[in-house]
Amino acid sequence: MAVLLQGIGLINFEVYRAGTSRMLGLANIELTTAEQETIDMKGNGIAGTRAMPVRANFGSMELKLVWRTPMPDSAQIFGHERVDLSLYGDIEHTDVAGLNALHDISHRFEIGCVPKTWNFGKWEPSSTVDSEQTFEVLTLSYYIEGVEQFVFDGLNYVYRVHG
Asked: How would you classify the pairing of strands 28-30 and 36-41?
């Protein structure tokens, strides 16, 4: 019988400064939206106007990190320099073809970015601070089970989808 996996949800994730073995203490991450820039195509032979994507040209991409509490690492990655981050997550799947087996599929993002904003959060007793930092994404690579899915490096004209 064939294995037919259906995603259940994210089990957990870890975020590291690339090249280190020290996990950053994050509560949540809001990943970027990759939106291609467009050119309006109109004229003879075209019914109306079409906003056609321009290959490998993306609008601004932003990454948001939400810290439960501010840590020394959060200050260190907010300098005026590029920061490289590695994000690892496992998504649990179930086999809907009848085997009732659970499978974990690994996902990884490699992100090069520069700091933009830092909201120092809300400080009140018996709660998290939820300090937010946003970064402009310069490079983004996405892998599922180690297989390249998407690579974008806007400064070096690199854009690949599934290799």
From this structure: unpaired
Distance (Å, whole) CA 83 – CA 55: 26
Cα 127 from Cα 155, distance rounded (Å):
40
pLDDT one-digit tens code per residue, 6-26: 888 888 888 888 888 878 877
pLDDT digit string, tens, across residues 140-155: 999 999 999 999 998 9
CA-CA distance, 22 to 70, in Å (whole number)? 16
Spell out the SS3 assignment of the chain.
Answer: CCCCEEEEEEEEEEEEECCCCCECCCCEEECCCCCEEEEEECCCCCCCCEEEEEEEEECCCEEEEEECCCCHHHHHCCCCCCEEEEEEEEEEEEECCCCCCEEEEEEEEEEEEEEEEEECCCCCCCCCCCEEEEEEEEEEEEEECCEEEEEEECCCCEEEECC
Tens digits of residue pLDDT in 15-59: 888 888 878 877 789 999 999 999 999 988 888 899 999 988 999
Residues for the chain: how many in total?
163
